[in-house]
Amino acid sequence: MMRIGEKLGRYFSLVSLSSVLLITVLSNIGMNVFFTTYLRSAQESDDQAIAEYTRELLSEDGLLDEQDLMSIEHYAFTMKAEVILEDEEKKVILSTREPVDENGNIDDRVNYMDPETFSYREYSYGEERTIIIGRSKSIFSASPDRNFLLTINFIYLVSAVMSLFIGMLLKNKIKGNFLRPIYAIQDNAKRIEEGKYQLVEDVDSDTMELDELAGSIRKMAIRLENQEELRKRLTADIAHELRTPLSTVNSHLEAFIDGVWEPTPDRLMLLQDEIRRLTSLIKDLGDLSYMESGQARLVMKKINLSELTADIMEGFEPLFLADDKTIHADFCEDVFVFGDADRLNQVLVNIISNALKYTDQGSTVAVTLRKRKEQAELIIKDDGIGIDEKDLPYIFERFYRSDLSRNRSTGGKGIGLTIVKSLVEAHKGTIRVESGRGKGTTVTIALPLYSTSL
Fold this sequence. Notes:
The protein is of the alpha+beta class. It has three domains: 4-143, no CATH class; 208-292, Helix Hairpins, CATH 1.10.287; 301-448, Heat Shock Protein 90 (2-Layer Sandwich). It has eight helices and eleven strands. It has helices at residues 4-61, 66-78, 143-193, 208-258, 265-292, 305-322, 341-357, 416-426, and strands at residues 82-86, 92-95, 118-126, 129-136, 301-304, 326-331, 336-339, 364-372, 375-382, 430-435, 441-448. Strands 6-8-9-11-10 form a five-stranded mixed sheet, covered by helices on one side. A hairpin with a 5-residue loop joins β10 and β11 (441-448). α4 (208-258) runs antiparallel to α5 (265-292).
């Protein structure tokens, strides 16, 4: 196991070395293929020039004297070529090389040729006269060419060493610019692991992915801190929800046992109400656990959401009239969704009940149902006490109740909206709440419209 800085250094060095090595190999291949072709073409042009020069000397007086042969030999030497001249009788009259076999036939061209080392081309320079020009098979056999090749490879070697050196220098710079945010993110993760959410720091990075990761870590810390606070609050709320009815039941039973009170029907009914309250709380907790486990089975079928909502509102009208409140409907007809009627009924009853609880006398709750794109959109809007903006992110948390709704006369058990959210999401829908202190509350539920493909 090694640190990321060491790994980056190794990778950077490996990439630099591999790049220089690849360039060296490809360049050598390029020289041997393309540069060799170029040199061969240049040599062929030089060979033709030697042949043309020989023709010019021959055309001056129709023969080649000793001076002409010396000129041809010198010209061939400047061209770095081997030359063999034959007369019209195919006898060798000039060779820039000594014969291979001194006792052999000095008139035979073969005695002056070395096919293993040289390649030869033949040209005519007069009627039935031939000039044979030889070139080394190795294009880099000449000293300048070899020096050129060695110089190029030496340059590549120096480049490789310099690349490695520069890579080592750049590694520290990369470590500073690239790794510093990573180490800062790592430190933040350790603080989260230790539960020190307040110590998580902002991390600045000019790398998009690292910036997004740092932002996610920061949000996770805030979320975990809030969850920790919610957990503590949850414990207190559960204790509160259980303590009150249990204390009531216990005090009544003690009074009955001590003979202070008679167990009258009214007092027994009060005990029964408290037990029902406990039973309802346990049932809701069970329902919530069942919903969040992903094992809830919904009886899905085609539902006329317009009729379902209208029936629910009709049942609520006496309650609104009794509190001097109004419920107003604005429906599209025949809005069909695919869902569980009982569960959707539970969702709407919960939302409308909250609207009834937290609106003042003389207020109006408006229920709107409409089609929007491929969704059915149900909007329940009231002008009641509203929800503080700081509480909005947590209203779907179990047992969470805002400070404006914590009194027992209106406040429920604090898990109704949690169940509502789970049911809506089980129907592949979404729920959104907009509110503000004293500004009323708007709940928007979006469900997929019924499709024959379902």
